[in-house]
Amino acid sequence: MKHFFSTRVRVVLIVAVLLAVLLAVVSNLTGLSLPEMAVKGILTPIRTGASQLTDQAQRLYNYMFGYEALQAENEALKEEIARLEKAARDADALMRENDNLRAVAELKQVHEDYKLVDCYIISRSSQEWSSSFTVNRGSTSGLAEGMCVITANGEVVGLVSEVGLNYAEVKTVLDSSLEIGATISSSGYNGMVQGGYATGLSGLLRMDYLPSNSVIRNNDQVVTTGSMVYPRNLIIGYVVDADFDDTGVAKYALLEPAANVAALEQVFVVTEYEVG
């Protein structure tokens, strides 16, 4: 046992001497004293960790700042897109208004006797047997029941059926209760046009009482015959089909309305015209 402890003591002394020599050499090379080296050895890992934390914080800050900048840029882009979309809508509306004004000017040149009141559609109603809409003009603008309603291109839209001070109801040509005296322009055949709702042909018109020997062609134009209600030669629609009626004595024709009632925004009420 005595020999064992002596050996261990010698080993410890040898290691201590070697460490002392090593520290002396390192101190001599670095110019640091032993206490300074000890402090540096302790602080170096701490400094390394702190540096890493600082780097991570800097990266996080840069990310957050960059994200906020991207958000701000995104919002600015959205605002610019919204502005451009509004400008496009305004330009479209202006173009439509200019087209309408041009068409109205041409309509007035062709029909100098017409007195027109322009109206905008504010609501619509479509049921199984009827089709109508409401406009933003009424009796204060000179509207009255039984007045004809047309487009700027001279196409029949319908008839004023009810009037208030600042509004009016219009039954469209698709309404099965309306009947319009009509003529096929190319042949001169006369008949009566009614909304196709009555025969289950929603969206189309039906022209009845045509002669059994009449020759009817697709795309033939059908116009108003002229009456106390509808001025002469307003466009009602175009032939898309024809056949004999149930009696077999007369023919009928199916028409596509000239006016796209569902897409209309503006219409014109004929308040006065010369009958002839």
Write a short abstract of this structure.
The protein is of the alpha+beta class and 276 residues long. It has two helices and twelve strands. The protein has a domain at 115-272: Rod shape-determining protein MreC, domain 1 (Thrombin, subunit H, Beta Barrel).
What does the model show?
This protein has two helices and twelve strands, in the order H-H-E-E-E-E-E-E-E-E-E-E-E-E. The protein has 276 residues and is of the alpha+beta class. It has a domain at 115-272: Beta Barrel (Thrombin, subunit H). The strands form two sheets. It has a six-stranded antiparallel barrel. A hairpin with a 4-residue loop joins strand 1 (115-126) and strand 2 (131-135). The N and C termini lie far apart (145 Å). The model has no long low-confidence stretch (mean pLDDT 81).
